[in-house]
Write a structure and sequence with these properties.
disordered C terminus, 8-stranded mixed β-sheet, 17% strand, globular, 16 strands
Length: 525
């Protein structure tokens, strides 16, 4: 079962109180402790993992959870005379050593809680006292201790505890933003359009006026406001593409630095795209067809930044994170889903694919092997592969991945993961450009991580070719937004680029200086 996250991405490292060892215990007391105390405590620990199962329901969901546990977590009896109980973080950390039935039960129940699936915790007596505990969903037995799915041994007596979400009420966050959150977003948008600047303290003070104090909510709602402002600029028919870029760049330079990080955003390596880079990526995709009206797919959409160059009704988007998904629902997209990007394969091909997948390594068992030739080992490379599966043969694609391309003494792409990934891309796709971008251009998103922008203009009819040598590649690092505009637009049609090469570099600087002066005068007035 190909899950794309390794241990550090699926669950956090365990804490001391994630492991409980009972010496003098009774079955009834253990059952009460697990069902009434430990399972409720464990729910937040499997939030990320639970999202991987959102594609499934019913019997298939149960089977997928069972198969995941069997594939990744070993089973072993507790030490004689003790009851060792693990919460999910500790279960995952001990998965190779092995865990017992109560650990599986807590682990699975916490996932089902996140998915809001009614289920029963069942403890059974085979004739020698309470000996075994497992999960039942409707009539489906979910017990990874057993070698067979949906199987239970005969027992003499049983005790059950039901988790019924109709009576428990909603568990988890609401997937719609509140009226106060909407008002906060509108206020941030208004102030951005006035070129008013905020810092971390002032944006939190503004949010508090609307009753919003959670720092994650403030960060994500602020970014939603930035996305809305930039989309409005990008779809202003009165402006040229170049003027739109200048306005979006100015908005980016005025925005608050989105530096707040959560355990989930760190685990998922969630860094949203800088708006000028997102706009240029979208502009490249749009430039593929005159009067572009095509359908766009964004499989790791975040708050929607990579789609700002397009009208929402053109876009099908997917985002696994609850907070960001609910922000997507406010934007009027053609379709929005919330599932694992690897399994999000719509039954259609798209004119454009645009994505900035999360970065990071994956567990060795989750490596992706392509045509018995290319083995992808990084999360952003693997998610890029799945995103490209949805591209039409003549479609355009823009992808942001981590790091820069380096070369060996013979001018080849340096051996390792980047050579493998780029060799795969150049063999199967029409790669127009791979642009190394200085991480400083990302700084207002809360990181300075170096990135590459990959531009693809379709699928090759015949698979052939290699990543170019250094002397044939444009391997220089782009250090300024002015350079980035020139580089990206150099991949447009000849008619579009003929006037850019001479004047844009100097005109851009003059207009930026003029806009900065205008902002200063506005603030003084």
């Amino acid at each position: 079962m190909p899950f794309y996250m390794n241990q550090s991405l699926l669950l956090q490292q365990p804490k001391k109180n994630d492991f409980i060892e009972l010496i003098n215990y009774s079955g009834d007391d253990t059952f009460n402790l697990i069902t009434q105390n430990l399972i409720p405590k464990s729910i937040e620990q499997t939030t990320v993992l639970s999202n991987q199962f959102k594609l499934y329901s019913g019997v298939v969901l149960c089977q997928k959870i069972y198969e995941f546990c069997k594939a990744y977590i070993n089973y072993r009896f507790d030490k004689e005379g003790t009851e060792q109980i693990r919460l999910p973080r500790r279960t995952w950390a001990d998965r190779q050593k092995g865990v017992d039935c109560e650990d599986f039960t807590i682990f699975i129940s916490s996932i089902l809680h996140n998915l809001k699936v009614n289920h029963t915790i069942k403890m059974v007596d085979f004739g020698q006292g309470w000996q075994h505990i497992y999960v039942v969903v409707s009539d489906i037995v979910l017990d990874p201790v057993q070698d067979k799915f949906n199987y239970e041994d005969s027992y003499e007596t049983a005790r059950e505890y039901d988790f019924d979400f109709a009576s428990l009420g909603s568990i988890g966050r609401s997937l719609s933003i509140t009226s106060s959150e909407k008002q906060f977003v509108q206020q941030v948008q208004l102030e951005l359009e006035r070129n008013e600047k905020h810092n971390k303290r002032s944006i939190e003070k503004l949010a508090s006026k609307f009753g919003i104090t959670d720092k994650t909510d403030i960060k994500e709602l602020t970014e939603l406001a930035i996305v809305n402002v930039c989309r409005k600029i990008a779809n202003d028919k009165a402006l040229s593409d170049y003027e739109k870029y200048l306005s979006i760049l100015e908005t980016y330079r005025n925005q608050v630095i989105l530096s707040h990080r959560t355990s989930i955003s760190i685990l998922l390596q969630q860094y949203s795209t800088a708006s000028p880079i997102a706009y240029l990526a979208g502009l490249y995709v749009k430039n593929g067809v005159q009067n572009y009206q095509g359908q766009i797919f964004e499989p790791t959409a975040g708050n929607g930044m990579m789609t700002i160059a397009f009208r929402p009704e053109q876009c099908t988007v997917n985002e696994i994170d609850d907070t960001r998904y609910k922000n997507l629902l406010t934007q009027g997209f053609r379709k929005a889903t919330q599932i694992n990007a690897i399994y999000n394969t719509p039954n259609e091909k798209f004119d454009g694919v645009i994505t900035n997948p999360p970065f990071g390594a994956v567990d060795q068992r989750d490596y992706l092997k392509i045509d018995n030739k290319y083995i992808l080992k990084d999360l952003d490379h693997i998610l890029s592969y799945y995103a490209l599966n949805n591209l039409k043969s003549d479609g355009r694609c823009a992808i942001i991945i981590g790091g820069h391309t380096h070369y060996d003494s013979e001018g080849r792409v340096q051996a390792g993961k980047n050579r493998i990934f780029l060799s795969y891309l150049y063999r199967y796709f029409k790669v127009d450009d791979v642009i190394n971008i200085n991480g400083d251009l990302y700084s207002r998103q809360g990181t300075s991580f170096d990135i590459r922008l990959i531009l693809i203009s379709g699928i090759k009819q015949v698979a052939e070719g290699f990543a170019p040598l250094k002397e044939q590649a444009r391997g220089e690092v782009i250090n300024t937004f002015e350079e980035l505009y020139e580089r990206v637009t150099s991949n447009f049609s000849q008619e579009t680029t003929s006037t850019l090469k001479i004047k844009y570099k100097y005109r851009l600087r003059l207009q930026l200086q003029s806009k900065s002066l205008s902002s200063v005068l506005h603030e003084k007035n």
